[in-house]
Amino acid sequence: MESTSQLFGLNPLPDQLVVALAGNPNTGKSTVFNALTGLNQHTGNWPGKTVLRAEGSFMHRDKKILLVDLPGTYSLLATSADEQTARDFICLGRPQATVVVADATCLERNLNLALQVMEISSRVVVCVNLMDEARRRGIRVDVEALSSELGAPCIATAARDGLGLDKLKDAILDMAAGITDTSPRQVSYEPHVEQAAAQLEARIRPFLPGWANCRWVALRLLEGDSGIIRAICSSLDDDSEKVFLKEGAAAWAR
Amino acid sequence: MLQTIIPLSRLPNGAAGRVASLSARGLIRRHLLDLGLVTGARVEAIRRSPAGDPAAFNIKGALIALRNEDADRILIAID
Ligand SMILES: Nc1nc2c(ncn2[C@@H]2O[C@H](COP(=O)(O)OP(=O)(O)O)[C@@H](O)[C@H]2O)c(=O)[nH]1
Ligand SMILES: [Mg+2]
User: Fold this and answer.
1) Which one of A31, A52, A161 would you pick to mutate in the ligand 1 pocket, going by the greatest count of ligand atoms within 8 A of its CB?
2) Which of A13, A61, A231, A247 is 20 to 30 A off residue B65, Cα-Cα?
3) How far apart are CA B42 and CA B64, in angstroms?
4) Where are the alpha helices (DSSP H) in A71-154?
5) Does residue A216 contact residue A120 with C-beta atoms inside 8 Å?
6) Are the C-beta atoms of A218 and A200 separated by less than 8 Å?
7) What whole-number distance in Å separates Cα of residue B77 and Cα of residue B79?
8) A191-207: average pLDDT
9) Of the ligands numbered here, which is closest to the C-alpha atom of A25?
10) Model pLDDT for residues A45-86, shown as the tens digit of each residue
11) Taking CB atoms and an 8 Å limit, are B60 and A78 in contact across chains?
12) What is the chain A residue with the closest CA to B36?
């Protein structure tokens, strides 16, 4: 398996924790990014793509964190270059944590992405931003209840005013350092899909050593999502790739 | 009560309705669902580009632009 830096052109320091920043468009993701990293940032493109990337670093409680801003998307499952970039990084780049910035004024639509990220990674922090705007509109968000419903820490912020950012940094660091226990809520599908996914998951697991999210890979194989299948194959050796594709095709045919 | 069902592409600006069904399949369907176009979701037509395509809709609190080609595959029940 290639390292994060080889696949994505990132060069984290040996003692730096890599954290991805995801979110729907217009949720204040850049505002959060700027507030956390200040002037310690630079921009470029994702390797081989015309998609813009910003990365920046900050220190918190003496730990170094490299924050990678992903493209704003509503989903990780469709086909746009932005969605592929975000998905490939969360899945293959294996950041130590992923922050999902959500808009407190329309949480329902934002939780779709949060649940998709939580299907790929168990290390997710939800930043419930624009809390000031929500309050102005009479919307109250119970972040404690949301945290326990999702099984992931949810932190209320108003990033434009710098509110809640210290708590957010604490939550990011605890998650990235592996201190936080999480059991992210998983979406369950219809019984026949669950059954097929479980069978396929067991068969492909040997070929995906070190992968925490074989269930998610199995679901994508069942869906026949060629984009992610190609991305995964590029990280496998030739023999594993063959078996992996064969299992996928067999499951697809059933 | 009798409901009128029309494709989203024909929803006039300022009018609203609820998603009755999607005729799209595969990745396009997935994409539309991810945009919040699930059955029962309320959609309001906000404005159209000068050529009429794409058009912008309010879907669950976000302004989303859709091409007519896609909006044609979303059936809306007008309330
Ligand atoms: N009221 C309010 N506005 C915010 C907040 N965070 C960001 N914004 C504003 O929301 C808009 C979009 O922010 P931006 O960071 O560019 O969003 P992005 O598209 O997710 O990167 C900008 O006008 C920000 O100033 C917040 O917490 N409260
Ligand atoms: Mg931005």
Assistant:
1) A31
2) A231
3) 13
4) 81-88, 107-120, 131-136, 143-150
5) yes
6) yes
7) 6
8) 92
9) 1
10) 988 888 989 999 999 999 999 999 999 999 998 678 999 899
11) no
12) A109
pLDDT exceeds 70 at position A175:
yes
User: CATH for A2-176?
Assistant: 3.40.50.300
CA A248 to chain centre: 24
Q: Extract the tokens encoding A97.
A: 């944590």
Residues in chain A with CB shorter than 8 Å from the CB of B30 are 75, 77-78
- The secondary structure element, H or E, covering residue B20 is strand B16-22
Q: Which one of 3.40.50.80, 2.30.30.90, 2.70.98.60, 3.40.50.150 gives the CATH number of domain B5-78?
A: 2.30.30.90
User: Does residue B64 contact residue B35 with C-beta atoms inside 8 Å?
Assistant: yes
The span from the CA of A84 to the CA of B72, in Å, is 26
Chain A interface mutation, best of B34, B59, B63, B66, highest count of A Cβ atoms under 10 Å: B34
* Contact at CB, A77 and B30, closer than 8 angstroms: yes
In terms of Cα–Cα distance, which of A176, A200, A140 is closest to A68? A176
Q: How far is CA A184 from the centre of its chain?
A: 12
Query: How far is A150 from A162, CA to CA, in rounded Å?
Result: 25
Q: Is B61 on the interface with A (CB under 8 A)?
A: yes
What residues of chain A lie within 8 A of the CB of B62, using their CB?
24-26, 74, 106, 109
Q: For residue A179, is pLDDT > 60?
A: yes
Please report, for chain A, the start and end positions of each structural domain, with discontinuous segments joined by +: 2-176, 191-253
In this structure, the number of other CB atoms found within 10 A of the CB of residue B37 comes to 25
Query: A115 at the B interface (CB within 8 A)?
Result: no
